[in-house]
Amino acid sequence: MRKIVIIAAVISLAAFAAACGSGAKPAAGNPIKGQVIKSGPIGNGLTVTLSSESGKLKNGQQDLNIAFTDAGGKAVDVGAASLNFHMPEMGSMAAMNEPATLTTTGTPGVYDGKVRISMLGDWQAQIAFEGPAGKGKTMLPLVAQ
Ligand SMILES: [Cu+2]
Prior knowledge:
The chain has about 140 residues and is mainly β. The chain has one domain (about 1-145): Immunoglobulin-like. It is about 15% helix and about 50% strand. The chain has one helix and nine strands. Strands 1-2-3-7-6 form a five-stranded antiparallel β-sheet, with no helix packed on it. Strands 5-4-8-9 form a four-stranded antiparallel β-sheet, with no helix packed on it. Copper (II) ion (CU) binds near residues 90, 93, 96 and 119.
């Protein structure tokens, strides 16, 4: 219970910082831009966070941010990163893949992304990295809404 309260406090602090810093570049110590869509462990002790202005994965063309952080929430230079949105086949509909275009920012470990999601519903964000921090990959389930 105590841990949950602490986490809630950290989240509201982060939201406050994001609101205050809107328009500012992400810094190594405060690497999450906008609002979190989803985050999770990606291996080698790192966490990956997808975020955007709305905090939602939307249907259609959109800008996203992706940040790789250590246990302290600090951005970590991971070198090459990739992000693909995958929807498994559904009945007669073939599987779909929408790779995001990632570009580096002034902060190593933080990337700007662009993607065109082509359908509402359940997607898997397939994320991988390889470079100075080793390599890792994960899959985060998301709903385009
Ligand atoms: Cu589909």
